[in-house]
Design brief:
heterodimer; A: alpha/beta; 5 strands; 44% helix; B: six-stranded antiparallel β-sheet; 37 strands
């Protein structure tokens, strides 16, 4: 069974992604930030983690590093709306840290779903 | 030679004084020879008297005897020559002068001599001065000996008169005795005659005494009675004769009485000559008179016989002389100025004591020396000329300035006035000068001159304008070069006769907001009229209409009594500073907007993520074509626009993280131009002039593409779709000066210059100022985001370039983008744009949802010879392909499309025809991992926007891979 953990502090975004997963028949749960996500990981055992970067609490880059260390098999997709203070994008860094795909918000649904399917069909 | 001892020198005044007291020739000779020998340091002095045709060597004092007591004919001795010629003779070597009787001198010590006549006119004699070595007496010494001789002449004459009178008195007295005896005799007639003769004799005696102002007296010790002559009574102011000695002794002033008593006693007791001066209070009028009395004692008859002489007038004259001499001496010795005398040939004959103060050496060291060694070599000429002028004109001259050497080696400045010195006959015998030390004054003058020069240099070279005007008319007195530069006019045009009423008109002064100034508002005018110190900023308008912003600070200048005598204004051209400040303000504004925009973009993207995501999902749930579906589609469209706007905001404010590689820009520009040709309305004529590239620019071609597109879009908009010309140029230019642009100043060097020029509506000043501000747009709502030029600004800055904008409202706009060339071009691999384009005739299926892009690509591909079929919807494209797969040789598809991604489409197409070459075009999305996509069957990738060379090459490449030729 494919399971996706969605970590995003933006509630609208999180619930939209959960609905999108539901529509394509993928079980998914949401987490508010990196800490919340890591806590839920063990119980939920997802195949794919979709994480935002700029979040309060544990932010995305740190979350990716920790996930890769703890759960090397899990696929990760990073999504970001860009820096909050500076204009730089963190996505290339997220990719370097181990995110398999990265997407700038707002997402292109087709591309995004393609990536999700890719991740779920093959191992990281 | 004697050693000179200045303290023992007798001044001429001393000699005159002593000689006035001398009553005989011996005293005179003694006084003169001692004084002369002492002064001249001579080894011998003789005193010669003329006796008709002979010279009588009456007295001498010498180291060995000379000729005392001997007489020589006037023709055979030098003293005779001196008396005959009435002039002095100085002989350095007596044996080399034919006026000297060598035989007479051979036996003596004399080697040199000075012989001066006693009294120049009708000489009475001569004074001879002798040295045992060869010696030439100085002018000073000559003058001294001559003065002594002249003084002696007077004294000798006086003594002679005195002697003559004494002899006459003695003779008369003798005759009186003789007559008295006759009277006492028996012969009455004889007595009668004798009495008559006696009376005549007494009358003569009285007359003689009266003429000579000499009285006689006789004191008979036997009777104690003093008999005085009439002249004596007159001198003493008494009317009774036959006074007792006691009575007589009451007349002298008390302080002299003891001296008189002692002298009389010494005469009577010891025969000591009675020769005494004293003062009396004349009983007749209480006047104090000076008396000189001489007496002899006849011990046989016990009678003291004396004469007395009223010397009051002589004493007064002497005292006056002394007073005058003292006054002069005091003046000279206490004066601040140096008093000096020079002989006609420039030798110092006198120098006042304060020479020591100014020159560091005693004056006697300089006396006898020439003046030149003391004067700076450069100033000797002017001093000589000055002296010559004095001697030639015989008149006082003033103001010669020269340097003299202090004994410590330093040079001191003096200024001197001088006049000729004349002798009694009116002949110039020397020069007397008064010199003032003006070294300090000169130093001050020099310092002042230096200060003035420095101040002048500072003013001349200052970047600040300086103007000084007199009060109260405000007429300009001084304007420096910088002031003229700021105004842009010549001195003649804006300085002469310009007063307060003409400041504004002449200098074209306006307020910063453009209002004209009033004359009395000008800072300089306020300083002059009201004593205000004020700073203002205003505009000075040059004749060519150029406005310079000027900051001026004016202040009054006060005179000694506190009134305003002038005003000064210092002003700076701050035009550039203000412009830079404004630019900095703009840059800071852009920076802060960028930072803000970056922050907002994050939240915006999240919000848009929700909006687009939900709308997208909802669209699936509603019937296609329903109103709800249309509305949701509008939400999606709006979301897409917002997405693009955020992308642009991020593009404007992005820092770093860009991959810039060496690029030739000409191909990028050619692509943009091609793209533009497809999209611009036909009313706009597109011109281009692209020079070849020689050196690449380190650039992100996508961004260069974007800025040129932005510029051209703006230009097209400025022409408002009306008829116009859009001119795109490209060239390489080497700048040797920094380039000042709106995105900063860049250093000199080689630049790629992209120019975009239109003849559209142009921009006003405000639009020009705000041009690069994010969200600033002149387009109607919905037509523009206001980010185009802001993005350009950001990109140009990140490429270390700059941009200039020139625009004239109604005429058009010209924008130039300057991008620096690569410093090093090694290992640069760039597309060779000069290589011929690879062409083909295959059939291409082109899929892109963007109409503009698909139009442009079609244009490019058609130009290359291909047969192109366009689809803006991937679903329709898939349908067309599936219906007739063999009608296409190559598929070029965009990756990012609604409904279906390029990759999804590719997979579907490959399912239909496994060997169809597919080129996937990606823009900003990094979704597609190239390696994996290739594994999935994609034949090649292309970065958007397209470039002609790369797309041409890529098509040939994928076809070759599939075995097509």
């Amino acid at each position: 069974m494919n399971r996706v953990l969605i970590i995003d502090d933006d509630e609208d975004m999180r619930s939209m992604l959960l609905q999108l997963m539901e529509r394509v028949g993928i079980e998914a749960i949401g987490a508010r930030d990196g800490n919340d996500g890591l806590q839920q990981f063990d119980a939920f055992q997802p195949n794919l983690v979709i994480t935002d970067i700029v979040m309060p609490g544990k932010e995305g880059l740190e979350t990716i590093i920790e996930m890769r260390r703890k759960y090397p098999d899990v696929s990760i997709i990073a999504i970001s709306g860009g820096g909050r203070v500076g204009p730089d994008s963190y996505l290339p860094i997220a990719k370097q840290f181990g995110a398999r795909y990265v997407f700038a918000k707002p997402l292109n649904r087709n591309e995004f779903l393609f990536a999700v399917r890719q991740c779920l069909s093959t191992k990281a | 030679m004697l050693k000179k001892d200045p303290d023992k020198h007798n001044s001429i005044a001393d000699i005159v004084c002593k000689l006035s007291l001398a009553r005989d020739l011996d005293s005179i000779m003694l006084i003169v020879r001692n004084a002369v020998r002492s002064y001249t340091c001579a080894d011998g002095v003789t005193f010669i008297l003329r006796e008709n045709d002979h010279c009588y060597y009456a007295d001498e004092e010498a180291i060995t005897p000379l000729w005392k007591g001997r007489r020589f004919h006037v023709s055979e001795c030098i003293s005779g020559w001196v008396m005959i010629h009435k002039e002095a003779a100085a002989i350095q070597d007596v044996f080399a002068d034919d006026r000297i009787p060598y035989d007479i001198y051979r036996s003596t010590f004399v080697k040199s001599l000075l012989m001066v006549p006693i009294r120049s006119a009708a000489p009475l004699g001569a004074i001879g001065v002798y040295w045992s070595k060869e010696y030439l007496p100085s002018d000073n010494e000559r003058n001294y000996v001559q003065a002594a001789a002249d003084s002696a002449a007077v004294a000798v004459e006086n003594v002679r008169v005195n002697m003559h009178l004494r002899n006459q008195i003695a003779e008369l007295e003798h005759e009186r005795h003789h007559l008295a005896e006759i009277i006492e005799g028996t012969r009455a007639d004889e007595r009668k005659h004798a009495e008559k003769a006696l009376r005549e004799s007494e009358r003569d005696l009285k007359r003689a005494q009266s003429i000579a102002n000499i009285g006689s007296w006789r004191f008979d010790l036997n009777s104690g009675i003093v008999v005085a002559s009439d002249e004596t009574m007159k001198i003493y102011g008494i009317h009774e004769n036959d006074l007792t000695i006691k009575q007589v002794q009451t007349i002298p002033l008390p302080e002299y009485r003891k001296q008189l008593d002692d002298s009389l006693k010494n005469l009577i007791d010891s025969g000591v000559p009675y020769n005494i001066e004293f003062k009396i209070r004349r009983p007749s009028d209480n006047a104090i008179r000076h008396i000189h009395s001489v007496a002899e004692y006849d011990s046989d008859q016990m009678i003291v016989f004396g004469i007395l002489h009223d010397i009051t007038e002589q004493k007064i004259a002497e005292e006056q002389h002394w007073e005058s001499e003292n006054r002069f001496r005091s003046f000279v010795e206490n004066a601040n100025d140096i008093v000096y005398a020079l002989s006609p040939d420039g030798v110092f004959s006198y120098i006042s004591p304060n020479w020591l103060d100014y020159m560091g050496e005693r004056p006697d060291k300089a006396i006898g020396k020439r003046f030149e060694p003391y004067v700076h070599p450069e100033d000797v000429k002017v001093c000589r000329e000055f002296l010559e002028r004095v001697f030639e004109t015989g008149k006082k001259q003033s103001g010669v300035e020269y340097r003299v050497r202090h004994c410590d080696g330093t040079w001191r400045w003096q200024i001197s006035n001088g006049a000729p010195l004349f002798d009694n006959s009116g002949v110039i015998m020397g020069y007397i000068g008064i010199a003032r030390d003006v070294t300090e004054q000169k130093k001050m003058e020099e310092a002042l001159r230096e200060n003035e020069a420095m101040l002048q240099a500072a003013l001349d070279n200052s970047h600040a304008g300086v103007a000084i005007a007199s009060a109260p008319d405000g007429k300009l007195r001084y304007v420096n070069n910088a002031a003229l530069r700021i105004r842009g006019k010549s001195k003649k045009e804006i300085v002469e006769e310009i007063g307060i009423q003409k400041y504004v008109e002449s200098w074209q002064i306006y307020h910063v907001d453009g209002r004209p100034y009033k004359d009395d508002e000008v800072p300089l005018a306020r300083a002059i009229l009201h004593g205000e110190t004020c700073s203002k900023e205003f505009i000075v308008r040059r004749d060519n209409g150029e406005d310079r912003i000027v900051w001026a600070n004016a202040a009054p200048i006060y005179g000694r009594n506190g009134n305003i005598v002038a005003g000064i204004v210092v002003f700076l051209d701050v035009t550039e500073t203000r412009r830079l400040n404004e630019r900095l303000r703009q840059a800071e504004k852009m920076e802060s907007i960028g930072t803000l925009a970056g922050g907002i973009a994050h939240d915006f993207n999240n919000i848009l993520g929700g909006i687009i995501g939900y709308a997208d999902m909802s669209l699936e749930d509603v019937p296609p074509g329903s109103i709800l579906a249309k509305n949701l589609q509008r939400i999606l469209d709006g979301g897409e626009r917002a997405k693009n706007l955020v992308r642009q905001i991020l593009n404007f404010s992005r820092r770093g993280n860009e991959e810039r590689t060496p690029q030739y820009l000409r191909p990028v520009l050619k692509e943009v131009i091609e793209l533009l040709r497809a999209s611009l309305p036909s009313s706009i004529e597109l011109k281009s002039n692209l020079a070849p590239d020689t050196i690449p620019v380190l650039a992100d071609p996508t961004q260069i593409h974007e800025i040129v597109m932005n510029l051209c879009t703006n230009a097209a908009h400025a022409m408002n779709d009306e008829k116009g010309v859009l001119d795109v140029t490209y060239k390489e230019v080497v700048f040797d000066q920094p380039i000042e642009g709106r995105a900063g100043t860049v250093p000199p060097g080689m630049y790629s210059v992209i120019g975009v020029q239109d003849n559209g509506c142009g921009m006003d000043a405000i639009t020009l100022t705000r041009l690069f501000e994010p969200f600033f747009t002149t387009k109607p709502p919905g037509k523009g985001t206001g980010m185009g030029m802001a993005v350009l600004y950001g990109i140009v800055q990140r490429h270390n370039g700059t941009v200039t904008v020139e625009s004239i409202p109604g005429k058009g706009t010209s924008v130039k983008v300057f991008l620096p060339k690569c410093q090093e071009v090694r290992n640069v691999t760039v597309t060779d744009e000069n290589a011929p384009l690879e062409r083909g005739t295959e059939r291409i299926l082109l899929v892109d949802d963007e109409h503009v892009i698909s139009d442009m690509a079609t244009h490019l591909l058609t130009n290359l010879g291909y047969n192109v079929t366009i689809f803006n919807d991937p679903i329709r494209a898939l349908k067309a392909f599936s219906e007739n797969p063999d009608s296409f040789d190559v598929v070029i598809t965009d990756q990012t499309m609604p409904n279906m991604s390029g990759l999804d489409l590719a997979k579907e197409l490959l399912d239909i025809k496994t060997d169809i070459p597919i080129i996937l075009c990606t823009g900003y999305s990094k979704l597609v991992d190239e390696e994996k996509a290739l594994a999935a069957g994609i034949a090649g990738f292309l970065s958007k926007p397209f470039r002609q060379h790369s797309i041409a090459h890529k098509i040939r490449f994928v076809l070759q891979k599939k075995g097509h030729q």
